Amino acid sequence: MLVPDLKRSARPLSDAATGAGRTAPLHSPHDRLEEARGLSEAIDLDVRDAMLVPVSSPRPSTLFGSGKVESLGAHIEADEIGLVIIDHPVSPIQQRNLERAWKTKVLDRTGLILEIFGRRARTREGRLQVELAHLSYQKSRLVRTWTHLERQRGGYGFLGGPGEAQIELDRRMIDERIMAIRKELEVVVRTRDLHRQGRRRVPYPVVAIVGYTNAGKSTLFNRITGASVFAKHQLFATLDPTMREVRLQSGRRIILSDTVGFISDLPTMLVAAFRATLEEVIEADLILHVRDISHDETESQAQDVEAVLRDLGIDTLAVDAPIIEVWNKTDLLEQPKREEIESQARWSSERPPVLVSAVTGDGIDALLGAIDARLGSGDAELQLDIPPEGGRLLNWLYEEAEVLARETQDSGGVRVRVRVAAEKKERLLANARRSGVEAVDVRRVSNQV
């Protein structure tokens, strides 16, 4: 496991991604090393050694200098290492030259992430998306050799060898397969769009959970929904999206969507391939950006996620952006650090974050309240005098709205004050008319007074 240290103080981001003059802080070398190790262990690789390699000037032919290539080669040969992972983009020429010099397979960061996605995809859609990204990646690897197209086991061929299922593809065959996959994914996009149209007719707002990989998104999803989505302290534990219905305190029903985790330097072809899935994020009414607030690199991770969201066309810099930051894993904070984080959250005036622990459940009620309030900016507050025989209407109000106050009258009826979602107001008024009950808009009456 090699992590090139290019001696840069910051990673500049494009103006389109960040706005004027913003620069994302570079992840620390130690964090990059630990993340690279975690990526390797995510597909059960036995990491024999992991090291930072200073690189003052990247070489076009081998990335590393000739002396470093030779010394690393001796180490690789002595330890009988069968695979070298370089946590950095490696060009096809560099990959070929290093494999020849070290007499072993070489995999760069993009190839490793694609391998993880290949192992984790469970649905047909997920497999198609990964294969599309894989083929786009492999197409650039056709450099006078077929060794990069050998597949023997698991994933998508990067870690296999010659033997059982060697695949000899040329650019024409790759292009044909890419076209075929894109046609199949067009069907997926149309199907998802039909599902979204169906949800709009209900209509249930969609709340999408996004965040850096291993930030605790699936654990939070399970905590809120009571589902049993696979959640593990592991990079990219979740790949295929999952949706569940959730009922909020106001009676509002939402669709909560758990999505794939983001990561720094996420391969471009993966963002493109998973666009059909990520459209659930694009079309969401509200986005929960989950951050591991206990992580030393939480700010850098947050900016990586925001960069991907901006690539998807979501303006994360707007004050009214449909985003709630969820600062997760507060249970891992020592008391002084927790107090500092809580103070920081209180002084966040533009979009105050919500502090939670998905593991213990601390802060979940506040988060659900924040979601309800954000989606309920257009809610109506109504008062109804319901006669004794209006039990069906009263039951509907408890099921579909939030009952704020209830008062029993001398006649045996009840006066209730309720808050109802804007999309359900007309249904409430229709039900009230059928029961012969007048619904008075409390806010309108207050304004007139």
UniProtKB/TrEMBL annotation:
GO MF assignments: GTP binding; GTPase activity; metal ion binding; ribosome binding
Domain Hflx-type G: 205-379
Binding site for GTP: 211-218, 236-240, 258-261, 328-331
SUPFAM superfamilies: P-loop containing nucleoside triphosphate hydrolases
Principal subcellular localization: cytoplasm
InterPro entries assigned to the protein according to its UniProt record, in alphabetical order: G_HFLX_dom, GTP-bd, GTP-bd_M, GTPase_HflX, GTPase_HflX_N, GTPase_HflX_N_sf, HflX_C, P-loop_NTPase
Coiled-coil intervals, chain numbering: none
Annotated localization: Cytoplasm
Cofactor(s) needed: Mg(2+)
Region (Disordered): 1-33
UniProt keyword list: Cytoplasm, GTP-binding, Magnesium, Metal-binding, Nucleotide-binding
Cellular component terms (Gene Ontology): cytoplasm
Residues involved in Mg(2+) binding: S218, T238
UniProt xrefs under Pfam families: GTP-bdg_M (PF16360), GTP-bdg_N (PF13167), HflX_C (PF19275), MMR_HSR1 (PF01926)
Function as written in the Swiss-Prot or TrEMBL entry: GTPase that associates with the 50S ribosomal subunit and may have a role during protein synthesis or ribosome biogenesis.
Quaternary context: Monomer. Associates with the 50S ribosomal subunit.
Annotated family: Belongs to the TRAFAC class OBG-HflX-like GTPase superfamily. HflX GTPase family.
Protein name: GTPase HflX
Source species: Hyphomicrobium sulfonivorans
Species lineage: Bacteria, Pseudomonadati, Pseudomonadota, Alphaproteobacteria, Hyphomicrobiales
